[in-house]
Design a protein that fits this description.
Elements: H1 6-44, H2 52-141, H3 144-159, H4 167-181, H5 187-201, H6 221-229, H7 246-265, H8 269-286, H9 291-305, H10 317-329
Length: 331
């Protein structure tokens, strides 16, 4: 049995009508919603009032809003100015803190430098005092041992200065010490030794008026009698000292030897030479001229003719250099 196509066609036509009805209903609903929106919008927009009072009110309202905006702008401008001032103030404070930190750092560095400079100043003053003592010992009495000792102590203080500006001072004191240590023989010490040797020989010498002079045989017979009656003395020789005056003459000789020692201590070459000449005169009158005495007199005369001072250009050079450096470093 076959199905009839008529009921199928009817079903399709019924569905189409339903769909068309649905579309129409939806269109009506959309149109109604749009109409409602347009009506509500027109109701919200009031009607424009163009009267003079309305315009005055609007103008007054605009002026008030403009004044309020001007006030707000002025307030904002003031706030901006205050913000700029606070920014500048903070910047100045930051710069001030940085400067204070730099000052503190400089103060710490200056404190450390001042500690070093105080120690250096103490060492310099100590060295200057010792060098002055060394100079006075050398110039006044020529005391080589004392001068050398004082200069060595000054060199110890100077070598403690590690700053490069004191390099020349350390070199100068080294040269001066080498010059003092290089002195082989002090002429004053040589002359003092000759004077001591002569003084030690005097008690062993026979008197000038004694009968048993060195190298002279004892006379016999007529010659002995003639010598007792007649006294022969070469022309130009000094008068011999009587036994009663011998003690006074020996005292005068001791005084001349003391004067010679004083001249040696002060390195006075002329005074020492004059004292040696007077000592030689007293020796002629007091003692017999034997070989030992003649040798002592010749050696003492050679020591008197030699200069007692030592030419030392480096003496005092460290003190002069130290004083020059202190003056140049002074503000």
């Amino acid at each position: 049995m076959t199905d009839s196509p008529v009921p199928v066609a009817k079903a399709h036509s019924r569905i189409g009508v339903i769909m068309l009805a649905v579309v129409l209903v939806v269109a009506l609903l959309v149109f109604a919603w749009l109409r409602l929106r347009v009506d509500s919008g027109e109701a919200l927009i009031p009607a424009t009032d163009l009267s003079a009072e309305a315009l005055d009110r609007r103008l007054l309202l605009a002026e008030q809003q403009l004044a309020r905006m001007e006030q707000e702008r002025a307030a904002l401008q003031q706030r901006l100015g205050e913000s700029a001032n606070r920014t500048n103030l903070l910047r100045d404070e930051v710069l001030g803190v940085s400067e204070r930190a730099a000052l503190i750092e400089d103060s710490v560095q200056q404190l450390s430098r001042s500690d070093r400079s105080a120690m250096d100043s103490l060492r310099l003053n100590e060295a200057e005092l010792l060098l002055i003592i060394a100079r006075e010992r050398w110039q006044l009495s020529g005391d080589l041992a004392g001068t050398l000792q004082a200069t060595e102590l000054a060199a110890t203080a100077i070598n403690g200065l590690k700053d490069p500006q004191w390099l020349t001072l350390r070199q100068t004191v080294t040269r001066e010490l080498a010059a003092y240590r290089g002195i082989e023989a002090d002429p004053r010490a040589i002359a003092r030794g000759e004077l001591d040797a002569l003084e030690a020989l005097l008690p062993q010498l026979p008197a000038a008026n004694s009968a048993d002079t060195e190298g002279t045989p004892e006379p016999y017979g007529f010659e002995r009698l003639l010598k007792a009656l007649i006294r022969i003395q070469p022309t130009g020789q000094q008068t011999l000292i009587a036994p009663a005056e011998r003690q006074a003459a020996q005292t005068a000789l001791a005084l001349e030897m003391a004067n010679a020692r004083t001249a040696l201590q002060l390195r006075q070459s002329a005074e020492f030479k004059n004292s040696v000449r007077r000592i030689d005169q007293w020796l002629h009158r007091l003692y017999a001229d034997g070989k030992a005495l003649q040798e002592r007199r010749e050696r003492l005369e050679q020591a008197a003719n030699a200069p007692l001072t030592i030419a030392l250009p480096e003496a005092g050079s460290t003190l002069a250099e130290l004083q020059r450096l202190k003056q140049s470093a002074a503000p």
